Amino acid sequence: MLQRSARTDRLDHLRAAHLLEGMLIRLAEARARAGVRPAWLREATQRLGSVATRGDPANYDAVASQLGMAESTLRRRFRRATGMPPHEFVLQARVAEARRLLGETDRPIKSIARELGYRDVYFFSRQFKKLAGVPPAMYRKSRQG
């Protein structure tokens, strides 16, 4: 590749570029198979996950600026990397935390909903059922034995 790029022939330059592109594609495919996630994605999922479990409203613009990108770039890159938009990731993280709390504690569902940022327990229940497949009370009963 280096020999081709050092030549003056235009076709040799194109061939060298083609070889480099092929190597980069193979490297990207190997990283994807190995489950290697870029640093920005690890940081984004950590920040969005902590927002979700604390029950804070998700501020995607703030997360994007902390990562050094525009909000639209964050949304586009996040969807491309994970297959879902950031908002759906936050909802799934909230439901995962709700599952944990329902299974490990005896706290009222209303208390868990409020902790996760829901003002309306009925809306929480509908979202939980949509993502978990069962209402929160039934989920808790199934975990109690």
Our measurement of the CA-to-CA distance between the termini, rounded to an integer number of angstroms, reads 64 Å
* Main pleated-sheet profile: none
CATH architecture of the largest domain: Orthogonal Bundle
Helix content: over 70%
Overview of the structural elements:
It is a single chain. With 145 residues, the protein is mainly α. The protein has 2 domains: 1-36; 37-145, Orthogonal Bundle (Arc Repressor Mutant, subunit A). Helices cover 77% and strands 0% of the residues. It is built from 9 helices and no strands. It is elongated and about 75 Å long.
What's the SSE blueprint?
Blueprint: H1 2-6, H2 10-34, H3 39-54, H4 60-66, H5 71-82, H6 86-104, H7 109-115, H8 121-132, H9 136-143
Short description:
With 145 residues, this protein is an all-alpha fold.
Keywords:
145 residues; mainly alpha; Arc Repressor Mutant, subunit A; 2 domains; 77% helix
